[in-house]
Structure formats: C-alpha cells, structure tokens
Amino acid sequence: MLVCVLLGVGAFMGGRSFAETDDFLSPISVVAGVDSKVLYIAEATANQVAVFDIASGKVVKTISVSENPVGLDISADGSKLYVTSAVADGKVQIIDVQEGSVTGSIAVGHTPVAVVKSKNGKALYVCNQFNNNIGVVDLSSKKQVAAIDVVREPVAAALTSDGKILLVVNHLPAGPANGDYVASVISVIDTTSKKLIKNIELPNGSTNVRGISISPDGKNAYVTHVLARYQFPVTYLEKGWINTNAMTIIDVPGRRFVNTVLVDDVDLGAANPYGIACTADGKNILITHGGSYELSVIDREGLHKRLLPAATARSFTSEIHSGGGSKLFDASYSAEDVPNDLTFMAGIRRRIKLKGIGPRGLAVIGTKVYVAEYFTDSIGVVDIEASAQPAVKSIPLGKTKPATFIRKGEVLFNDASLSYQMWNSCTSCHTGDGRASALNWDLLNDGVANPKNIRSMLLSHKTPPAMITGVRENAEVAVRSGIRYIQFAATSERKAQAIDAYLKSLKPIASPYLVNGELSEAAQKGKKLFSEAGCLLCHSQPLYTNMSKYDIGTSTEEDDNKEYDTPTLIEVWRTAPYLHDGRASTIKDVLTKFNKNDWHGRTSELTDKEIEDLAVFVLCL
User: Fold this and answer.
1) Crossing angle of helices 608-620/521-532, nearest 10°?
2) Are residues 402 and 416 in the same domain?
3) Is 530 helix (H, G, I), strand (E, B) or coil?
4) Which phi and psi (to 5°) does residue 353 adopt?
5) Is residue 430 included in any domain, yes or no?
6) Is the previous residue joined to 577 through a cis bond, with omega within 30 degrees of 0?
7) How many Cα atoms sit within 13 Å of 546 on the Cβ side?
8) Do 196 and 123 share a structural domain?
9) CA-based nearest residue to 505, from 560, 458, 537
10) How many CB atoms lie within 10 A of CB 264?
C-alpha cells in the first residue's frame, strides 16, 4: 500500500534566474511507483525526473523533460507518468515508464504546477497557477478541453475516492487587503459538470497555502498554510504574534470547514508547512516544513478525538463569562479558540528534524516517508514507526555541488532559523520567490495603526527607495531592517549580502494577459492611452517607475504619510491588491474607483472600453 501527495509547488518556482540554478537538481515533488519499489522525483532546475530504487537507495535512471518539471502523478497501472512543465507556455508531458522517455506533450495553461489524474484514467486536472483555473485534459485527444475558473493561483488539488469532487488549493487571498477578513479559500469543483460549486473559506489571515491530502476513508481533507496575525502591529515575534503555521481540516462529504490547528509549539515555530499526506492506514498525517526543515507526524485519530468536544462545546462567552465551563485543552474553551491554541497538538504530534534542507513534496510507503529535499539535492527517509525519535537519513540524488552565492541567499530567504524561534522565514510574507502574500502589515518603521500592503521584492534593488513610504533608502537597508525588526534576529553582513544577491537574480515572468507573447489589439490601444493619460510621467520606462513619491489622494487620517513611492508596474498582474493599503482589488479599481481628481492618471473622461484597454495593457507588463 502507498499514499502519495500531489502538491502545487510552482508557487515556489516562478521567476527565479535559472542560469544560477541549472547546476543543481532541486527535487521538489515525489510519487511512488504502483509496485512501491521505485520513486519518481521531479528535479526542477535539472529539467529531469529521477528514478530512485528504494531497495538499493540509489538513482538508477534519469529522464529528461522540458523546463521546470514540478507536478507529478502516475497512471493507475503504473505505466505512465504525468509531469507538468511549470512555465508560461505550460505543458503536461507523458512519460512511458518502461521506455524511460517522454512519449507525448499536451499544451495547457500558464505555469501548471500540479496534476491529478481522473479516477477513470481518461482525464487530467491541471492547476494552471497564473491563469487562475483548472485545466481539464482529455487524454484520448491529448488536448485541454475545458478550463474551470477558481479564485487565485491554484497550486494543489486532491480528488475524492469516487472521482466526483476535486478540492483545489488557492495559494493567495483575493480581493482588497484593508477589510476585516482576508484569507485564501479551497475551491470545490464538480468534475461531472466541470463547474465550481463552492468555495470553503479558511480562517482570517490564511495565506501561502501549499498542500492538500484527503484521508483514506474520504471523510476529511487536510490543508497546509501560514496563518498570519496581520491585524496586530509587528511589535514582537514570539508565541506566534506575527505568523503561525497551520493545518486546516475540511469535512469532505459536508464540504465545510471543520477547524484549524497550529503545528507550532508555544516557543518554537514550525515555519512554512508545505507538503502533506496521510498514511495508507489513516493513522497518521505527515507534513513537511519548508522553513524549519522538519517532518510533523500527527496522530489522526487523536486529533479528531480532541476536535470533537471542541466542535460541540458551548461558546466561550456563555460558558466562561458566566463563571462556568472548563477548558477543552489548555487555552481552548471552544472551537473558536483552537486556531489560537499553541498547545492543542501537544501529545498527538511529533516533530522530526530532517537532515536535508528545503523539504517539499513527500510520498509514503508503509511506515516510511520519503521527502524531496530541495536545497540539498537529496531524498529524506524516515521510518515513522521505528521509534519515538526514528533514525533520519538524507540520500544524495547526484553529485553534490557547492552552492553559489545566489543559491546561499535563496536558502537563507527560505530558512526560518534566521528568525527568532523559527516562526517564519522571508518567504512567509514574500511567497512565490520574493513576491507578496496579499496582506497588509502594520510595521513599526512609519508609526503604528497604519497597515501597509506587502510589496513584491522583484526589482526592489533596482528601484529605490524601499517600502511603500520610501522610508528605507534602498533594498539593501530594507533587507537588514527586515531581519532585525520583523524576524527579530541578527545575522552577518555576508548572509545579508547573499539575500541581496538572490533577490537581484529574480526575473519577471511573462504575463498571462499576453497573447502568444505579444500585446493583444486591446492592449495595443491601452499602450497608447497609457501615454495620453499621463501614466508615463510617473511610471516611465524601462522599469515603469520614476522612483519618486507622490500624494495621489489615498492617505487616511491615521496615516502621517501623504506621499507614497511609485512602484514598478512590471509583473503588476501578479501583485494584487493595489495601492498602499491594498484597498484596490484590481487595476481597473486603481484607474477609476480610487483615482481621486485624476491624480493617478487622467482617466475620468475615458470610456469604459478605454479603461478596459488601459487596464489590460498595464496587466501585460
């Protein structure tokens, strides 16, 4: 018996400089063969799939594939592998396992990062991350025959045992960031009608959602994500006051949220939960932690026993404020308390430190867990039933190569040990290779009670000053200030320079709004309007910013700042919401609803069609 996890890891991939990483393997996803004798491992920057023989503990073959292989699934009979190439011109490649070569390629969407075969083996469901849809591929015609819109950046999916429902993980929240509730959702798709039928909300602050697994009995799905405490000022880090790390439980038949539990301890974070799987017997849930380099082993039966009284308990208000009631478990009096209880998992979860760096996807065969270790080009092996603290191995998948300075910076950017008590890494807030997690944060560099939207780090070193208010002279200063005042830690100048080097290496990726890589007719018209409306005065080429600050009428009474830095518009299609406090859900909102007195471009006299054309052009940058 085996259980494997198919998770969307392309959110981690988009926009890096491949010239600096093509000497590395970067194992990112793993799936077991149906005979449980081999593992197939997607090696993202090596552009290959490794065949790992479990008995000998060695790679016996590598299969060359197209650029950036990320998602994996295997046919029911084990004869074929399906591999996504997570690039703008995305594809699913079909590998004949016996021949060890690619025998077919199917065009899909922009950055396909996860693939799931249908129960009847006739179709594939593909997470086209930057098209915000699920592509349905017909394997007989080898074509994508449908695209089902979801909310934002689908990166992982799981199919129910009857094949009728597909649960889809949306990596980031959608909508404005300045409201009372900002969170990612799980989309529920009816595979028969090929329609989205429901979105299940995750708790407020849920972002950086990564993996999903359905239990063998089909009763529950489990989802990994960061649970950000974005509504609090960033005054200190300990005990989860900035970011906590979580797993959400979903009732699959009822298609509803059950609860969210924290996978941290009171004084030790378990940063960046990533891959997730259940053992075949349903006894355990396994989670890899990309920032703290661990494997969590959770007693599934114990978890649900503990959640059951929480679900039926009366409210905190009626029980506790009336002087009655008792704790369910330490800080939890009711179900509503559980997502804030850092002790809830005590006694039912083990934290196992891995030897490799950068754990991502995982597969389970019996009692052994195999983990793709991205930064050490290795596969981690843990026998979770061997002992309370089992032996942990990390097996190299090839010849070990010394890390470049940029690669060291990438490791540090993802490493929670750089942070006090390992609560978060840089990527907890700047997810998706230094981009943004769609939340506002109240940092202390410009006073209190004035939350600002997270910015992408792409081109930050080329477009000073840094921060929305321009309070930091440049990105170098911002990197060091972030380590000190957000991660509450100190580091060497050399490590800070390595992070700088990594961020400087990031490259923009092509917009999904382009048509065959070119501006559409509407975008061509929008390009002309961009100049006529005065947008070029502030967003000048080649970086689409003049690196100056302006008052555009969006400041609030609570904010002492009236002028804000002009951001680059390159890759702006990826960084919603917009404006300093994330009030604008779309570029169209920026051009209309929040363009007071035409201070943000002369758009008040444009027709609706012209506004649409202008917005499309901006989204093509």
Assistant:
1) 100
2) no
3) helix
4) -75, 130
5) yes
6) yes
7) 10
8) yes
9) 458
10) 26
Both 369 and 439 in one domain: the answer is no
Measured distance CA(372)–CA(71) in Å, rounded: 13
Q: What is the DSSP string of 490-515?
A: ---HHHHHHHHHHHHH------TTSB
Q: What are phi and psi of 338, to 5 degrees?
A: -60, -45
Count CB neighbours of 549 within 10 A: 17
Contact criterion met (CB below 8 Å) for 38 and 58: no
Structural domain tally of the chain? 3
> What pTM was computed for the model?
0.94
Q: What is the dihedral of CA 250, 255, 257, 262, to 10 degrees?
A: 10
In a domain, 513, yes or no: no
Q: Which of 505, 534, 554 is the last residue of a domain?
A: 505
Structure tokens at 513: 């709004």
Angle at which helices 493-505 and 475-485 pack, to 10 degrees? Answer: 120
Asked if residue 157 belongs to a domain, the reply is yes
Q: How far apart, in whole angstroms, are the C-alpha atoms of residue 18 and residue 302?
A: 44
Instruction: Show the tokens assigned to 485.
Output: 């005042």
Range of the domain at 446: 407-505
Same domain, 443 and 531: no
Distance CA 94, CA 92 (A): 7
**Do residues 225 and 207 touch, judged by C-beta distance below 8 A?**
yes
The conformational region for residue 313 under phi > 0 = left, psi -120 to 50 = alpha, else beta, is beta
30 bridge partner residues: 41
Tell me the two tokens of residue 575.
Answer: 């960084």
Contact criterion met (CB below 8 Å) for 370 and 39: yes
CA distances from 332 to 7, 204, 213, 336, 583 (A): 31, 18, 26, 8, 34
Distance, in Å, from the CA atom of 416 to the CA atom of 429, rounded to the nearest integer, reads 12
Give the contacts of 313 (CB within 8 A, at least 6 positions apart). Answer: 319, 328, 333, 334, 335
Angle 69-70-76 from CA coordinates, rounded to 5°: 95
| Helices and strands counted in the chain (H then E) | 11, 34
Give the pair of three-digit tokens for residue 310: 């929480």
End-of-domain residue from the set 374, 406, 438: 406
Partners of residue 32 on adjacent β-strands? 39
Task: Chunk the chain into consecutive blocks of 10 residues (it has 621) and report each block's average pLDDT, rounded to whole numbers.
Answer: 40 46 88 97 98 98 98 98 98 97 98 98 98 98 98 98 98 97 98 98 98 98 98 93 97 98 97 98 98 98 91 43 48 88 96 98 97 98 88 95 96 96 97 96 87 96 95 96 93 97 98 97 98 97 96 79 92 97 97 94 96 98 98
Burial of 541 (0-12, 13-18, 19+ CB in 10 A): exposed
Number of residues assigned to the chain: 621
